[in-house]
Give the backbone structure.
Amino acid sequence: MHSQAMFFRARADERVDNPVLQRALAKAKPLFVGKRAKGIEGLADDGMEFEALRQAAAAIRNRVVDDLDVWLEIFEERARATGAEVLWARDGKEICQLVIDVARRHGVTKAVKSKSMLSEEASLNEALAGAGIRPVETDLGEYIVQLAGEAPSHIIAPAVHKTLAEVEALFACHHGRSPLPRTAADIPALAGEARQVLRQHFLSAEMGISGANFLIAETGSAALVTNEGNGRMVTSLPKVHVVITGIEKIVPTLEDFATLMRLLPRSATGQTISNYVSLLTGTRRPGEAEGAEKTVYILVDNGRAGLLGSPWQDMLRCIRCGACMNHCPVYFSVGGHAYGWVYPGPMGSVLTPLYTGLENALDLPHASTGCNQCGAVCPVGIPLSRLLHDLREAQVARGLRPRRERLGMWAWGRLARWPGLYRWCARRAARYLAWLGGAEGRIRVFGLAPGWTAGRDLPAPSGRTFHELHSSRQTKIG
Amino acid sequence: MSSREIILARVRAKLGRSDAAGRRTRAEAALAAPLRGPQPVVGDDPAGRFCAKASALASTVERVPAAADVPAAVTRYLDAAGLGRCAVGAADLATFDWAAAGLAVAWRGAVDADTVGLTGSFCAIAETGTLVLLSGPRTPASLSLLPETHVAVVFADRIVATLEDAFALLRREEGEIPRSLNLISGPSRTGDIEQTIVLGAHGPRRVHLVVVG
Ligand code: SF4
């Protein structure tokens, strides 16, 4: 996907003013937060603790990341031993080439897809269409955004930004029927309509493309977690199955997978388990009348190796649960599309600059209030706030901040070297701002930085500087 | 250099770790002796817990005392739901006397037109109310996927406490993992339109469990 992350501010502004989007987001947030909270609370009923599980999960993911070369080789060997083919892709372009090659070799004209964020990184759908292969997204949310010609706005709820009315309009248009007035009671009918349309695609496609939630080294398997069952269709009905995953997705054993599965659905949707958890291994066995006859893994780098040994290595633990965005005040103000690339929310604000270039996503590390709600809920203990902070530092170190900001910081740094002068200036500023705030103590328009007061009031300082308050209190105590 | 070599070389360079052989040996050792993480306390009535959890996930459950009661229980369920008396089923259930209960079962994988899929289960998991199904020549995975109704037979003595226990059983009894191992927890569902949960997204709308013993 071509990144628009450098336009975050403009894209965010548009979306803050979009009442339809704001309604959709306002509806989703309490549901996401409430469901996860209930799911995590439920752990206690079974005598488990979130913290202990999280530490175990983080340890599993760290073990893999620390010896990634070794685990990749083991996975590759064992997957090959089951009859699967294992291919490697350095970047999105190579993913597209490999998938198109496989499709051509097997005479594929249509590919059904189960959610794969990596195929978004690669803009695979465009490439397939360009090669005369029709890609059909089958996760209901992904199907909706595909019909709309959009990208997903959330990693587990791709169409969270779409309202019922919008879905109805899309279905009417693409399913060749006239639009109907719809209420929430019609949602099952709409889901049923999509089921019918997509069922025919499942049955006629020659190729299924999926991601994998995990790769299991022990058995050379791909683990796929879905609620709809589309993952099962995509990976078992077509004769060719292509799995596209990042190189960091490996877990060593089935036991490790079990530990992670206690956290993934709970963190994502609050479920104790998703409806379908499938472990797919190799190809159709002797005597079987169904199942893919050809299975191809594409192990993708696309920037991941660059995080190893860097301050951002922790990010490779991510299991793509979406909890960080579900608890992010910024995400719920601007929606997923504002972030401008594949991954939104806090994890996206870390990954986008790292995968697409620091200079191409300057605002994202700043799209955070620093509240660390994301870090608090992350099931693999990724210190998202710290990673965002480190990205801000890296921007400064590489001289990527805007000239005005750099100049301001330089001037402030110089001033701080003369404490007397600094205090004098601080006093002036505090008095001036207090005066500006008036009796209400709120600054409505701040001429020096009008952006700060464009959408809110700035609380005015009391008129006394920190130093003044501090020394007056010291005297009292003394 | 191939992409494989480039990626692996990059990973090694970035990790900056030596002793690949030693690390490999340790990884293989970890695979040979898998360790379990924190597990739930499941209690001393796994079958009871399995039924309660499965019901909470929108499956319907009936317990019958003996295997001989299964065909009649399935027919009762299908009649009550008005689902007809035709099914496709997994051959490992062919030994039950379905004809006596008035049920016509074709022992094959499911196609689009089939309405009822009948399966057994490798085992079931009390922790989450989950069925464990293994694909194979006699147990096609399509049976639990394409028909709108999935009826599964579960033997109470095959209900294990946790997911780890299910994997242990798999290693012990099967030795190897099948092409597809499916953990199924209720009818398929979606919440993709305005976060409203709808049952029967792409897979079955109804999952009915007959628990024996
Ligand atoms: S960063 Fe953590 S919370 Fe966010 S998606 Fe990844 S695992 Fe989930």
